């Protein structure tokens, strides 16, 4: 269990597709003996009742605008708003980050596609002690979002500006900090061979730094730093 202000909480992760598992995040939670549950929305599991519990919204192949096809998206947005109002830690990754932006009233729309390893600049590295000012992280998305009013931008990219932002108790991360070699191999399977080979070589170079950033971002949000 995670202890926040003397209270014990279970962490809940929301998975939107079989191909978008928690990845490295699950390894960290196990290492730290933190109790968690995974709600597999793509299998028809319903949003559970939660009260100030930490929530993690993972990626997915749908758009946050596809509420007609995926009705659970509307419920997730309302859950995000309620959790932020209560001060509960909320972490969103890729689609999850876009869900946070949408829940806060901002548009999510097609942007410059980012697929593979790309650099970002951490402009609030002071809030993540020990992190470099620049990092290379794994992206796999076609949409982006406008920054919510009152949000604090942590990191930006040249092609897609809004990469990490915080809003009260929520932290939104556009890239895939949870990506493992297995996830990356699965997602890039249909790319041309030369692209797969390039991404595989870049994974060997950048994975360790990505995993360290993942640890720091997860610790930041679970400790109430968002």
From TrEMBL:
Cell membrane is among the record's keywords: no
Gene3D superfamilies the UniProt entry points to: 3.40.50.880
Record keywords: Glutamine amidotransferase
PROSITE patterns hit by this protein: GATASE_TYPE_1
Coiled coil: none
Annotated Glutamine amidotransferase domain residues: 27-182
Alphabetized CDD domains for the sequence: GATase1_1 (cd01741)
Keyword Magnesium in record: no
InterPro entries tied to this protein: ChyE-like, Class_I_gatase-like, GATASE
Name recorded for this polypeptide: Type 1 glutamine amidotransferase
Annotated organism of origin: Methanoculleus frigidifontis
Lineage: Archaea, Methanobacteriati, Methanobacteriota, Stenosarchaea group, Methanomicrobia
């Amino acid at each position: 269990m995670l202890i926040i202000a003397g209270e014990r909480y279970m962490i809940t992760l929301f998975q939107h597709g079989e191909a978008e598992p928690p990845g490295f995040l699950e390894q960290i939670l196990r290492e730290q003996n933190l109790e968690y549950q995974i709600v597999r929305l793509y299998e028809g599991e319903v949003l559970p009742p939660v009260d100030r519990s930490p929530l993690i919204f993972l990626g997915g192949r749908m758009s946050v605008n596809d509420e007609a096809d995926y009705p659970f998206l509307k419920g997730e947005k309302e859950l995000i708003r309620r959790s932020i109002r209560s001060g509960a830690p909320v972490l969103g990754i890729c689609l999850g980050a876009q869900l946070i932006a949408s829940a806060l009233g901002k548009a999510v729309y097609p942007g410059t596609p980012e697929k593979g390893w790309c650099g970002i600049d951490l402009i609030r590295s002071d809030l993540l002690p020990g992190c470099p000012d620049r990092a290379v992280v794994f992206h796999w998305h076609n949409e982006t979002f406008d920054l919510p009013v009152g949000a604090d931008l942590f990191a930006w990219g040249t092609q897609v500006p809004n990469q990490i932002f915080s809003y009260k108790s929520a932290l939104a991360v556009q890239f895939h900090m949870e990506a493992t070699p297995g996830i990356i191999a699965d997602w890039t399977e249909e790319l041309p061979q030369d692209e797969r080979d390039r991404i595989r070589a870049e994974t060997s170079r950048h994975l360790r730094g990505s995993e360290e950033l993942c640890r720091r971002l997860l610790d930041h949000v679970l400790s109430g730093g968002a």
